[in-house]
Amino acid sequence: MTTGTVPYIPAVEVEERETYLNVSGKIRSWLLTRDHKRIALLYLISITFFFFIGGAAATLMRLELMTPARDLVRPETYNRLFTIHGVVMVWFFLIPAVPTTIGNFVIPLMIGARDLAFPRLNLASWYLFVFGGCFTVAAIVLGGVDTGWTFYTPYSSVYSNTNVVLTIVGIFITGFSSIFTGINFIVTIHTMRAPGMYWRRLPLFCWSLYATSCILVLATPVLAMTVTLLAIERIFHVPIFDPNRGGDPLLFQHLFWFYSHPAVYVMIVPGFAVVSEVVACFSRKRVFGYWFVAGSSIAVAFISFLVWGHHLFVAGMSMYGGIVFSFLSFTVAVPSAIKVFNWTATMYNGSVSLKTPMLYALGFIGLFTMGGLTGVFLATLAVDVHLTDTYFIVAHFHYIMVGGMVTAFLAGIHFWFPKATGKMYPEWAGRIAAGLIFFGFNLTFFPQFILGYLGMPRRYAGYPEEFHLLNVMSSAGASILALGYVMPLVYLIWSIKYGKDAGPNPWKAMGMEWTVPSPPPKENFTKIPVVTQEAYAYHMMTPQGGDGPILPPAPPGERVEGGKPVDVEWSKQ
Amino acid sequence: MSQLTALEHDSYPAEQFEDTQQQSLAATLGMWTFLATEVLFFGVLFTGFYMYRMRWPDAFADGAKDLKWYLGGINTAVLLGSSYFVALAVEAARSGDRRRIVRNLLIAIALGVMFIGIKFTEYGIEYHDHLVPSLNFSSVSPEGQPRATQEQIFMTYYFVMTGFHALHMIVGLCVLAVIAFFARRGKFSAAYHNPVEIAGLYWHFVDLVWVFVFPTLYLLRHP
Ligand SMILES: [Cu+2]
In terms of Cα–Cα distance, which of B66, B38, B170, B163 is closest to A238? Predict the structure, then answer.
């Protein structure tokens, strides 16, 4: 970025190179593309659209909660708002967020493949996603749905007179989009790795997305069938969950949470994926305990299938069931803590540079830890009885999903933005936005922990006078948060046109995606590379860094200078 | 199926793969992963069914007695037979015998269609016996026996389980038809026959689901 480098990058040459972006500019070539990089961008546009729909609903809710009285919207409207917010954010933003955008873009590049294993299926997934989204948008436009994103029966299947079926159809279709993405990633990571990319050299990003894909493939069909049963009961008035005719609403809750608890991890494990990459890069150190970080992703995915019962502690569950589920829920803390400690240990003694992606990653670690620890409160049976269905729960899962996932998503977007576009964004703007988001987020959701502890129930449009101050704080924080989310949208779009050229590897990062030009050519690699070293060999990088991160393998014994690993003065470069 | 039609125009291996072995490995693993999804898909139905069966053992045993077990039994044989011919088609594909692929697949398809025919005949009988919940379920059987309300749950699960299975059969029949069409056009050889294997995998899975559906619905006739 110094002026001295300008003569070495003739601008004309950069513009003439064929990339995945300029290979064809026709709309048709985008809509029929099989290129994983273009599909990732299609997804990014779609989920951004849905993010702002969900965000608009949240904004209205926070506006309503500015005052204790139910004055801005009617309670029925408020029910629709939180349902839309939940449905859109969960299925149309959080679940696809990292896997379908960043994952789609970088997995083939990271493992040295030309594309995902099934490029057509990948495009079909996007079309399914959009098609399902149309149903959900239609449901919103036609008056919304008021069951909450959990669709508990019998309210949803018998009593609610809103657009339940339309919403369910949207979720069902989108579910298949998730399943196909999961299948694609699993098969790609198994079969498309470049020569030498052994499992032990696989970037942790891929490990985490592999775990995520396993959850998507094994949990999503359960949701699909469960909401299908719900729709069948609603449309044909046959008894399935209806207690009046021998059915059991608890069966619905068990099935729903058998999906939705693992789905919560679909909304956080990809965040782990991004943070592992970012922390290693901006600490200039190899990830501490590679196998523990990789294994803990798999462990989280496995345990996620065993803990759904903690959502039913007060819904009617035997004491022994509660104890078992409580204990199993505690075990989630183990792999989660491994992650947090290993990231911290990675930073320890590293040359940490606080670039925008790193700021987000640090925010993630803090907020995720908060969310995780309060999760332990909720897994404790006695405490849960007090806190269930209060704002404590709302704050807890927003710390995981928004503080965790959305922050990690933004970390990833800022980290790989130069790779995808070939441009840099203004660093100062990125830092300000990261700061705003961290501050705004905490101001929004920390008061909600206190509100919940004091007993304010969730899902009400009004509340007693004594909760006023904390709710005003929360709403004020939400407006800062909203500003923080709009900022990247503005300056990133601006940077696509006016940003400085990034070069192939602006962060001097390891990883094969940084060995190809930015933006990458359509076929990713002219020749499939041969991998000769581990994923995070930052300790082997010379102080000069160089543009290509993967150095030719040094013969054993030359990897160190004077018996010590080469120090990289990263921040002073 | 778009994968298959596109085979016509595309190079083999497809551009994202390095060699044919990688492509067939990926395709096979893809199908196995999809089948894992399918197991969970049907798993929801079995879970709910057995939970309700434990809660209402009498109503569910009566429900099983109201079904025509011999029709289900015949269908089991028909379906296992079709799987046998699909296996023969895959065997033929390995040796690159185009004629035998087509012939075996056509027999398998015929048996599959027969299964669907018998299944819909059964639905007709159940309609006639006033067993369809919310449409014409009667609390008294044609023989004058009283029926428990909860038998409606049994019948709902019966229709959903067999209905989803039939849906998978219809998809499978379409896949087999497309494979037979391409086999006839000489698309497959001893070197390239992976689509036949993968279609076979799917068909065997659908068969296997029925092997669990049949005893679950028809044979548990005692509370
Ligand atoms: Cu949970």
Answer: B163
pLDDT computed for residue A66 by the predictor: 94
Q: Concatenate the DSSP letters of all residues of A219-235 into one string.
A: HHHHHHHHHHHHHHHHH
| Per-residue pLDDT at A9 exceeds 60 | no
Q: A225, B44: Cβ pair inside 8 Å?
A: yes
Which domains, ranges and CATH numbers included, belong to chain A?
Answer: 8-541 (1.20.210.10)
Interior angle at CA A196, CA A200 and CA A279, nearest 5? 45
The CA A462 to ligand 1 mean position distance, Å, reads 27
CA of A306 to the centre of ligand 1 (A): 10
Instruction: Flag if B44 and A255 touch (Cβ within 8 Å).
Output: yes
Range 126-165 of B in CB contact (< 8 A) with A: 133-135, 149-150, 152-153, 156-157, 159-160
CA distance B180 to A557: 60
Q: Is B211 on the interface with A (CB under 8 A)?
A: no
| A238 → closest Cβ in B18, B38, B156 | B156
The arithmetic mean of pLDDT across residues A311-340, rounded, is: 93
Specify whether the CB–CB gap between A276 and A292 falls below 8 A.
no
- What would the pLDDT profile of A523-564 be if each residue is shown by its tens digit? 999 888 999 888 898 877 654 444 444 444 444 433 333 333
Rounded to whole angstroms, the Cα distance separating B48 from A227 reads 13
Residue type (1 letter), A563: G
Most A CBs within 10 Å, among B1, B22, B37, to test the A interface: B37
Cβ-based contacts under 8 A for chains A and B: 119
Indicate if the pLDDT at residue B178 is higher than 70: yes
Distance from CA of A20 to the nearest CA of B (A): 15
Residue A215 CA, ligand 1 centroid: distance in Å: 14
Q: What is the pLDDT of residues B153-164, one digit of tens each?
A: 999 999 999 999
A37: helix, coil or strand?
Answer: helix
Among the partner-chain residues B40, B51, B153, the one whose CB lies closest to the CB of A218 is B40
Say yes or no for a CB contact (<8 Å) between A191 and B25.
Answer: yes
Q: Look at residue A2 in the predicted model and tell me its pLDDT.
A: 41
Q: What is the pLDDT of residue A542?
A: 54
Whether the Cβ atoms of residue A133 and residue A533 lie closer than 8 Å to each other: no
Give yes or no for a contact between A294 and A276, defined as CB atoms under 8 angstroms apart.
no
From residue A212, give the alpha-carbon distance in Å to each of A179, A206, A311, A476: 11, 10, 21, 34
Q: Give pTM, 2 decimals.
A: 0.91
| DSSP label of A102 | I
Residue A567, CA distances (Å) to A342, A563, B34 in order: 21, 12, 47
Give the tokens for residue A4: 């001295």
Report pLDDT digits (tens) over B43-75. 999 999 999 999 999 999 999 999 999 999 999
Element (H, E) at B5: helix B2-7
State which H helix or E strand residue A148 sits in: none
Task: For A216-242, write each residue's pLDDT tens digit.
Answer: 999 999 999 999 999 999 999 999 999
CATH number of the domain at B42-219, please? 1.20.120.80
**DSSP state for residue A316 in the 8-state scheme:** S
Pairing mode of beta strands A560-561, A564-565: antiparallel
Tokens found for residue A53: 């729909």
Cα A536 from Cα A284, distance rounded (Å): 9
- Helix and strand numbers, DSSP H then E, in chain A: 20, 2
CB A235 within 8 A of CB A229: no
In 3D space, the residue among A464, A442, A382, A554 whose CA is nearest the CA of residue A67 turns out to be A464
Chain A: give the shortest CA distance to residue B5, in Å: 12
- Residues less than 5 Å from ion ligand 1, measured at CB: A 261
